[in-house]
Amino acid sequence: MSSSTIKSETEKASSSQDPAPADSNINHAASIEYWSSKPSTHSTMLGELGEYPWYTRIDLQGSKNFLTKVRRLVPSLSGKEKFKLGADCGAGVGRVTEGFLSHVCEVVDAVEPVEKFTQVLKDSKLKQEGIIGDIYTVGLEGWHPEKKYDLIWTQWCVGHLTDAQVVDYIVRCRSSLAENGLLVFKENLSTDPQNKDMYDDEDSSVTRADAKFKQLFAAAGMQILKSEIQTGFPKSFDLLPVKSYALRPKV
Ligand SMILES: C[S@@+](CC[C@H](N)C(=O)[O-])C[C@H]1O[C@@H](n2cnc3c(N)ncnc32)[C@H](O)[C@@H]1O
Prior knowledge:
34% helix, EC 2.1.1.244, alpha/beta, 9 strands, binds S-adenosylmethionine, disordered N terminus, two-stranded antiparallel ribbon, MeTrfase_NTM1, Rossmann fold
């Protein structure tokens, strides 16, 4: 089962037996090969749950609600106007941009390492309309932003980076945030009983524990403005918890 969706109890148990840090298993070439072998569709981005339209609806609505709550916490962001420039990081074929970021940002740049996915973005109506801006075909570990962003949205993809790469990525994002800019992560959480990160060799990714995320954010000089567990997914699907974190530079 894809790392973007459910892991069974058996998979969770076996991941905690491995004494090596989970991220030491990450192999970028294997991840790219995995994703390149998948169809360039919105469903692919959600693994086996992609066939359920409610899943993406709940996710995108949850993101909109979360961002609204975060904006209320920052007086200069509390208006209704759109952010000038956003970035969809680990964008896939643009599911998040199409269903959410394009409604809250005037222009959205996209960062995604799989060429067949960025081709979909390049051919899209949103690109022709100028709502999708620059498209970078590169992994987040190799992205060096050269602009100032009001919102950098990173969803269901940092599991492909090692811990050190996540910290470096956040540090680079921190210096490319506009004044009052936000960096958001929305990722699955590990449910390992010993609070360990879980490695998935299917797509060569790691699902991190909440404590690990907090440690990486702090190491990169960020503070959590707000965090929230995504609600609304049916219990019967045994999904891993999904958590959003809105980050600002530590003052
Ligand atoms: C589960 S999909 C999520 C896509 C999109 N964020 C969404 O929610 O629809 C994971 C994405 O991470 C991308 N990915 C793989 N390795 C990556 C890396 N090193 N940096 C950034 N993204 C990566 C994959 O190509 C894929 O598009």
